[in-house]
TrEMBL record:
This is Histone deacetylase. The keyword Hydrolase applies. SUPFAM superfamilies: Arginase/deacetylase. It comes from the Bacteria.
């Protein structure tokens, strides 16, 4: 059984110049239902979390100013979004969705957030269309509740951009291992230090990408011995992506998902999947590549 976080807030409201990349949040649930990958009952509507669940990974001053609309113009520009109450409702809802996914993954084995993967959000600031770090907040939530049985977390970030905010937040936290495999010359230009960074050259294709992943991920599972996995499955690794600069096919991206989720399933590791980025000029390429992640999860956990 798979469980999926989605709310209309994920897609609305945003300025007109941001509408195209956000269409996937409307179209992906429709695609999953139309194909019969999941039933409507698989979806749940998340809510905003209590402040304490946000403040484990974000400074209280930043969170207050963010909610009150008190960011400076420079801070607002760094996020890429003009501030509005609706934007804050959207971002907190996404974070709440990943938190609830973590609880559901402990019960069902897997849960997926149609949005999320806001890995450029730092403890005290937002960057790169990320205001609050949802996977970091959910990982900290699990560790803060020892009755849940999660003592070690692995974050597998396969978005084409380095998870700089996540890396910085957990820099001193030995219970969380951050692994980012990303484009070497892509955003952010100033990288942070994850526990393991694999920086890939432009034009990396399916074979080279999957070889790196197959060599690395089993070793991390053996060495870190996680109790829980967060997977950021960005599809901006596609050759068609206008921002990615890598050269994966949709089949290669699907095989990536099969490998990561297959290892989690084989090791009985609960996993939360967040969609991350995707900026191909054809919205169909983005939606189908994201849908592959759900197809894989449905085949494994049914």
């Amino acid at each position: 059984m798979i469980s999926i976080a989605w709310a209309p807030l994920y897609a609305h409201p945003l300025p007109a110049n941001h509408r195209f990349p956000m269409l996937k949040y409307e179209l992906l649930p429709e695609q999953l239902l139309r194909e019969g990958i999941v039933a409507e009952s698989a979806f749940f509507s998340p809510s905003s979390p209590p402040a304490e669940d946000v403040l484990r990974v974000h400074d209280s001053e930043y969170y207050h100013r963010l909610r009150a609309g008190e960011l400076t113009r420079q801070e607002e520009r760094a996020t890429g979004f003009p501030w509005s109450p609706a934007l804050i409702a959207r971002e907190t809802c996404i974070l709440g969705g990943t938190l609830e996914c973590a609880r559901r993954a402990l019960q069902y084995g897997v849960a997926l957030n149609i949005a999320g993967g806001t890995h450029h959000a730092f403890r005290d600031r937002g960057e790169g269309f990320c205001l609050l770090n949802d996977q970091a907040a959910a990982a900290a939530y699990l560790l803060a509740h020892p009755e849940l049985g999660v003592g070690r977390v692995l974050i597998v970030d396969l978005d084409v951009h380095q998870g700089n905010g996540t890396a910085r937040i957990f820099q001193q936290e030995t219970r969380v291992f951050t692994f980012s495999m990303h484009g070497a010359r892509n955003y952010p230009h100033r990288k942070e230090q994850s526990d393991l960074d694999l920086a890939l050259p432009d034009g990396t294709d399916d074979a080279a990408y999957l070889r790196q992943l197959h060599t690395t991920l089993p070793r991390l599972l053996d060495q870190h011995q996680p109790d829980f996995v967060f997977y950021l499955s960005g599809v901006d690794v596609l050759a068609t992506d206008k921002l990615g600069h890598l050269a994966l096919t949709r089949d290669g991206c699907r095989r990536r998902d099969e490998y990561v989720l297959g290892l989690c399933h084989a090791h009985s590791l609960p996993v939360v999947v967040c969609m991350g980025g995707g900026y191909s000029p054809r919205i169909a390429d983005i939606v189908d590549a994201h849908a592959n992640t759900f197809r894989v999860a449905a085949n494994l956990w049914g």
